[in-house]
Write a structure and sequence with these properties.
By secondary structure, the protein is of the alpha+beta class. About 40% of the residues lie in helices and about 25% in strands. The chain folds into three domains: about 100 residues, 2-Layer Sandwich (Beta-Lactamase); about 70 residues, Helix Hairpins, CATH 1.10.287.130; about 160 residues, Histidine kinase-like ATPase, C-terminal domain (Heat Shock Protein 90, 2-Layer Sandwich). Helix 7 packs across helix 8 and helix 8 runs antiparallel to helix 11.
Length: about 350
């Protein structure tokens, strides 16, 4: 193992080897440099204690995700793409299963370009409502004696709508910032999906007819260990989109069922399906990117920040889950969530 660790130091990416419980057995120099306390020994320590942003589900499912680390010397931060794979048995024949965690740093040039694009788009998203607000206020101040009460009321309605839009953009930007900086902390708890459904329907009922929401939850779903508020936020956004971009009398459905991964781990799948405008195939790959809104007339009728699905994807990742989308233009879309479940299922009523 000592020779293996020396060889790992030659690699241009971070590598950590753990056992099946996440106990560090070996770590190359690149990852040691990014450890919060470089002088402290890492061998024998839980990898989640070394880097709290890692998720135990990545080890259990041999998957991965994104991790943001700060250099303890320069205090600059970098994003790492994390992947977890089991070592081939022939490599460590005399040891229990060992797992390789690889940490690939995001290219700094790509990151710089993403930041420039983000700032440019945010500036536009903020400038547009501000310009409209200023224009209407100037008109009210200079021509208020010549405006009828109906015209004044209309101008004030427009100003309020633009202020609401501005507030949404700012709130979305702050949410993205808190997620990426690691300051948005999850508080996982064991819960059933049906515990969330009443709050979900009540929230959406403020804007939509609750009769449009069709719920079909399979019995005996595994428990989820997630942050209640984060999962509620994810489901609210996906269902709000489904309802907003469908005809006013069209139903949308929330279906949930259990499945088993290749590693025999139980998972809970949740699908949000609508009969709305659909998404062109060419646009599917950018749906979870920043400001990935479609340039369609329907979108102009329903203004948004362009950050909703991007934030949703970040929140799903933070809970150790996955999100995918399938769609057919003019026929609707299906957004599917998948979260690791607990080993022991509990009976859940299928009807609400």
């Amino acid at each position: 193992m000592d020779l293996a660790c020396q060889l790992l130091d030659c690699l241009p990416l971070g590598v950590v080897i753990t056992d099946g419980q996440g106990i560090v057995r070996c770590c190359n120099q690149l990852m040691t440099d990014y450890y919060r306390l470089p002088s402290a020994p890492m061998t024998g320590t839980l990898i989640y204690d070394c880097w709290p942003g890692l998720h135990p589900t990545w080890l259990r499912d041999q998957s991965g995700g994104w991790l943001r680390l700060t250099d303890p010397h320069s205090h600059n931060w970098c994003r790492f793409r994390v992947k977890v794979r089991q070592c081939p048995v022939e490599v460590t024949p005399d040891l229990p299963p060992q797992y390789v965690w690889s940490f690939q740093a995001e290219d700094s040039g790509d990151l710089e370009q993403v930041q420039k694009n983000f700032i440019s788009t945010v500036s536009h998203e903020l400038r547009t409502p501000l310009t409209s607000i200023k224009g209407f206020i100037d008109t009210l101040l200079t021509a208020q004696t010549r405006l009828s009460p109906d015209q004044v009321s209309h101008f004030l309605d427009v100003i309020k709508a633009q202020v609401d839009q501005l507030s949404q953009v700012i709130e979305a930007i702050l949410t993205v910032s808190s997620i990426q900086s690691g300051t948005l902390k999850n508080q996982p708890q064991l819960l059933t999906l049906t515990e969330i459904l009443p709050d979900l329907v009540n929230h959406l009922s403020l804007r939509y007819d609750p009769g449009r929401i069709r719920v079909d939850v399979a019995p005996d779903l595994p428990l989820l260990q997630v942050d209640y508020d984060r999962l509620l936020q994810i489901l609210i956004h996906l269902l709000d989109n489904a309802l907003k971009y469908s005809a006013t009398d069209a139903p949308v459905s929330l279906r949930a069922w259990a499945t088993v991964s290749d590693s025999q781990t139980p998972h809970v799948c949740i699908a949000i399906e609508d009969q709305g405008i659909g998404i062109p195939n060419a646009a599917l790959e950018r749906m979870f990117q920043q400001f990935g809104r479609l340039g369609s007339p329907w979108n102009r009728q329903h203004p948004g920040t362009g950050l909703g699905l991007y934030i949703t994807k970040l929140l799903v990742d933070s809970l150790g889950g996955q999100i995918t989308v399938a769609s057919q233009l003019h026929h609707g879309s299906i957004f599917t969530l998948e979260f690791p479940g607990q080993i022991s299922p509990v009976p859940i009523p299928s009807s609400l």
